[in-house]
Structures are given as structure tokens and as C-alpha cells.
Design brief:
Number of helices: 7
Radius of gyration: 17 Å
CATH class: Mainly Alpha
Distance between the termini: 21 Å
Number of domains: 1
Helix content: 40-55%
């Protein structure tokens, strides 16, 4: 499994906001510079994060973006699940009709269990954990 740029960069965006959580709204240009991600790409990532109520925006001269919830209430799994187009290791996990062998496949359950474990792990890690721990 390879995570998309969307979920990797989206997680970096959220971690950056978590690191500056107590500083009020953060300008997207500042995040872009610190994370070496284009402003245009960050603007695209902010849209689904705002719709999911993970980020809120503040307009005006002192405006910017900030987390909509405390850092301990947002998990990495939430972010990845939101930004990944495909969240299963195999297409047949979510869509049994994707493969003609779904009913007889001996490995399908393995990919399903592994997908569950990945998200179980990601859902156990909050932004608060990420900014406090030296991985």
C-alpha cells in the first residue's frame, strides 16, 4: 500500500496546524514554506478538511486557518481516510463485485484484516501524539 500525496501532505498540513495550535489562525503561505508544499496544493487539501470540520478559516488581515478541534480529538486515521481515494488494500474489500473470485478467494480476508489493522493503528494516533513524540 502506498499513501497518496493528498493524505501525506494533508497530514503534514494538519500536524503543522497542531504545532501552532495556540498561536491563532495560521496563514497558508507560512505552512507552505515550512512544509515545502505549494500554496495551490494546500488550498485544495483544505477544502475537504474544512467540509469535515477538521479545519476552520478566519478571514481578514489576521486571518488564516486553524484546527476546528483540539489536537487530541483529531486522529491521523481520520485525515488519511478523508483524503485517500481508496482506503482498502484491495478493491474487493469494499466492493466484492470488483473481483470474480471474491466468493472463493483465500487471501481476501487477509487484505481485509490488514486494512483494519492499518486504520486501527492510524486511528489510535492523535495529532497531539504526533507533535509530542519523536518518532
Amino acid at each position: 500500500m502506498q499513501l497518496s500525496t493528498r493524505s501525506r501532505y494533508g497530514t503534514r498540513l494538519m500536524v503543522d496546524l497542531a504545532q501552532h495550535y495556540d498561536q491563532g489562525p495560521i496563514r497558508i503561505n507560512d505552512i507552505a514554506k515550512r512544509q515545502d508544499i505549494s500554496v495551490k496544493y494546500l488550498e485544495q487539501l483544505i477544502i475537504p478538511l474544512k467540509k469535515a470540520d477538521l479545519i476552520k478559516s478566519v478571514r481578514g488581515p489576521k486571518g488564516g486557518h486553524l484546527l476546528a478541534k483540539p489536537t487530541q480529538n483529531i486522529t491521523v486515521g481520520e485525515i488519511v481516510m478523508l483524503l485517500e481515494n481508496e482506503t482498502s488494500l484491495a478493491p474487493c474489500i469494499k466492493n466484492p463485485g470488483a473481483c470474480y473470485m471474491t466468493d472463493t478467494c483465500l487471501t481476501r480476508d487477509i487484505w481485509g484484516m490488514l486494512t483494519e489493522k492499518i486504520y486501527e493503528t492510524l486511528n489510535s494516533i492523535t495529532l497531539s501524539d504526533v507533535i509530542k513524540v519523536d518518532w
